Amino acid sequence: MNLDHLPYGSAMIDGRRVALVRLDDEHAAQLNGPLFADGSLDALLAAGRDTWATTRAEIRQAVERESLPVVNLADVALVLPFTVADYVDFYASEQHATNVGRMFRPDGDALTPNWKHLPIGYHGRSGTVVVSGTDIKRPQGQARGAEGAITFGPSQRLDIEAEVGFVVGTGSTLGSPVSVRAFSEHVFGICLLNDWSARDIQAWEYVPLGPFLGKSFATSVSAWVTPLSALNFAWTAPPERDPKPLPYLDDGDATCGLDLQLEVRLNGDVISRPPFATMYWTGAQMLAHMTVNGASLRTGDLFASGTVSGPERDQFGSMLELSWGGRDPIALSDGSTRTFLLDGDEVTITATAPGPNGPITLGDVSGRIV
Amino acid sequence: MNLDHLPYGSAMIDGRRVALVRLDDEHAAQLNGPLFADGSLDALLAAGRDTWATTRAEIRQAVERESLPVVNLADVALVLPFTVADYVDFYASEQHATNVGRMFRPDGDALTPNWKHLPIGYHGRSGTVVVSGTDIKRPQGQARGAEGAITFGPSQRLDIEAEVGFVVGTGSTLGSPVSVRAFSEHVFGICLLNDWSARDIQAWEYVPLGPFLGKSFATSVSAWVTPLSALNFAWTAPPERDPKPLPYLDDGDATCGLDLQLEVRLNGDVISRPPFATMYWTGAQMLAHMTVNGASLRTGDLFASGTVSGPERDQFGSMLELSWGGRDPIALSDGSTRTFLLDGDEVTITATAPGPNGPITLGDVSGRIV
To answer: Is B117 helix (H, G, I), strand (E, B) or coil?
Structure first.
């Protein structure tokens, strides 16, 4: 039992929704009291930073005193732990954006001219965010074949994107930007996220208004939300930014990066180990950018980093990159190979973060293609 | 008093939220009963098509019997009538897409290759959808100046987009596409919508993932939702589609277009009269496309048509088009001119639809720049 972590979740137990903190891989403690009356984390998220701290201290004491009912995680069905308000997906890994640019625009610059000036992002579909463990139905849609003919049918290039999601607790007022320094006042915690992507649908639809059906069929998040207060030992310096960001994006000397080590497993085989510390834009910068135009935040807003890809080939966070657009199949231990996902494939993303007494293990996010 | 229309809204009266139907320009009747207990339209939307019909018949009878409390609209503050779940914005006017393509890609084809194959759309920010009458704060953000220098400050090219929004009542299951023929089973009604747009912010940010901060600062919707049942005389044949849409987008011989006549007023002057009947893609096609990948619908989902622009110059639905990118200033009756919006400017979009006893007037959507 690692009391340094205690991530929050939600489960159906005997037909009733119950809020939980995870104690170890197999056990969780039930949370009671007014903040958890509906079994979700919504009221806790809305309560603000001071309450996050006091509630956490109380829960930790109660766990130490063993005064909370313990459930066996094998016996319960974990559900989406909070109500997702708006979902935004960024594109904050320089290596990922470079890889995609090289593949899709081989004759141009890999990065678009705006990329190092602002964290590029777009809104996704919050109604199709699902909890880890939910089966993912292969989407159908339009695509354009190699000879330019329009095709319709199940996606032939179904992919993953290994990402980290930031969960907003405290909202903000319309018309009032949120500064980089207000990050920990608004963001409650993080989760792991798999932004399932149908590359063939996406490639045909995305000009000029961006990804739509290629992404909107499902986005999986981990069942456990790790509060920022469990990540005090995980902050690290982000990469040097050149050119220097505009003042509203300047995180100064702050250690705004997060040293999370992700792993992507396909049918049990580790196919990638993306290092989150390499992300060019930090969560604080994403938050400041998302609100600089006056857009307000709501409790439950979820914003994700975009695919996490490190500089090495075995650190890429999507199969598009790992197979270099399908050119280089990925070898699995059963002797088979993959370029994109086959029906029945199961993808699990895990991550660890430095903690005061050794690494903590974030809740994983997994899904099987059906 | 026109009983053919009876659009639904919501207001704060004596500190309490109350659901209403509008009787005429100055009066509304209060709605009571369990469906309207929270003062919003949320429960009615979720109740489904049969309940929409029976409730409407009951309300009409009650209005005729004068058994509902009547309020003077001058005395109440109208609020957002339903909880917006996901907000999607389409790009369904051929004239608008052609105009924008000519301005932004003068050396290429005006329409992108996908435009006539699918209704292009993207997700917007549902948390910043505001009710008509809400002041619009000019957004700040990054842009790229004429010489390529990055600038930061208030948008200098603040614009409108005159649109029609479709309000989803009945949700759908993840993994199950909704057909064009199920439109009236899922869509409760329509509203007018102004998709405020900061063209300078949008131009710099939108490649490759689409509009983000250029749109997310505010989207205004009319305070009144017109149910489809008030639009029985407004259906019309959409324009001929060439090439023939794929089967899932084929609305056959159906009269799936809507003959709405919009008007855009700037500080009281009519600057455009966009005809909604010219829209290339219909609401039923947007709905079918949005869900063909298996994406689910939720009660309160809002999807908008995109800017409504007719073939004539005085039918364009944005100032970008009316001023042709700022080249041709728009003359106002006070002797001033506009290319984009100035502080203090007020924009109001109105619309009429054919009814059984003459045209009905949709609830307008207005906002002032501050």
So the answer is: coil
